[in-house]
Write a structure and sequence with these properties.
single chain; Nucleotidyltransferase, domain 5; Aminopeptidase; six-stranded mixed β-sheet; two-stranded antiparallel ribbon; 14 strands; transmembrane helix; transmembrane; Cell envelope-related transcriptional attenuator domain-containing protein; LytR_CpsA_psr; membrane
């Protein structure tokens, strides 16, 4: 009997929601930044938000960006389905190690190889492959470069964050130092920096906020997943509140800057004619309405063999149809 999936790889629930919120507020900013004339054209367009049986399905992809190795490997893959009438949504994280037999490669490499073989085809190929895994149509794909996270916050002028307790993290990874031998240091200290956060209300720029939400090895209670999730929720709330505030929405210059940031950080096949519909959904979007699920009970890690090029991979415990049935059940209940 093959072992069930247990390797760490699923994005924590609150991190998934952070990605969804960033995508929705980004599309909202794009719409408002179009300007009044282009907005009227968009509003007058006949094309609406695509859907099947009243649901719009998205594939959300996250890449680490140029500062990290594997800059176009989609280590974050999320299927996000939204019911247009009720506003309820369902989110499913896909592990990057799912084996794609036709490609003899893992799921997180689909975008990379598609772009390498035919530039501009990465989103379409990713939608196709994930659609086959889940047995669902995928209407839109969005790829988010996490480097844009910092720029969004900086463009907003920073976000206020009330740090509940002071903490230190002595093992925060430094981008680009992952393989540094540190001159023989067995503890590899040169790969990490020391983070310190004081208790109390403070204005964080993009770099500081990113470290605040990504810190994983803080000493004491702040080193728990629960504390990290709470910090991420703080940033989610702060970004959404400031981005959708009247102060921001009436600031044409800032909206244009946000448009440029999102334009550089987000690749999508969402047409401009759908921006208004998605912006409306974003304005009424509430993270509390998101239901989440994972595939861990339906996947197994087969023994290393030539069949998988001796890689650590994941395969369905029976066949793909079991996953299809689970998805249908979740979407219809």
């Amino acid at each position: 009997m093959m072992p069930r999936y247990s390797k760490e790889g699923f994005v924590p629930k609150i991190s998934q929601i952070l990605i969804v919120v960033l995508v929705f507020v980004g599309l909202t900013a794009l719409f408002y930044a179009l300007g009044s004339r282009l907005q009227r054209l968009v509003l007058g367009a006949k094309q609406s938000v695509a859907s099947t049986a009243g649901r719009t399905n998205f594939l959300l992809l996250g890449v680490p960006g140029e500062a990290y190795s594997g800059q176009d490997l989609t280590d974050t893959l999320i299927f996000f389905s939204l019911d247009q009438s009720s506003g309820e949504s369902w989110l499913l994280s896909l592990p990057r190690d799912i084996w794609i037999a036709a490609m003899r490669a893992k799921l997180n490499t689909v975008y990379h190889y598609a772009e390498k073989n035919q530039p501009g085809s990465g989103l379409a190929e990713s939608k196709k492959v994930v659609g086959e895994i889940l047995g669902q149509p995928i209407h839109y794909a969005v790829l988010l470069d996490f480097g844009g996270f910092r720029q969004v916050i900086d463009t907003l002028g920073g976000v206020p964050v009330d740090v509940e307790r002071a903490f230190d993290d002595y093992r925060y990874p430094i981008p680009g130092k992952e393989n540094d031998e540190c001159s023989g240091d067995s503890n590899y200290q040169c790969r990490y920096e020391h983070l310190h956060f004081e208790k109390g209300l403070q204005l964080m720029d993009g770099e500081r906020a990113l470290k605040y939400v990504r810190s994983r090895f803080a000493e004491g209670e702040e080193g728990t997943d629960f504390a990290r999730s709470r910090r991420q929720q703080q940033i989610i709330t702060a970004i959404r509140k400031k981005l959708l505030s009247w102060e921001t929405l009436r600031d044409g210059k800032r909206l244009r800057l946000l448009y440029e940031v999102f334009n550089q950080s987000i690749k999508t096949d969402v047409p401009p004619s759908a921006y208004f519909g998605l912006a409306q959904l974003a304005l009424q979007f509430k993270t509390a309405n998101i239901k989440t699920a994972g595939l861990e009970d339906l996947l197994v890690n087969p023994p290393a063999s030539t069949q998988y090029d001796f890689q650590w991979v994941l395969m369905p415990r029976t066949d793909w149809s079991e996953i299809h049935r689970m998805v249908v059940k979740r979407l219809t209940n």
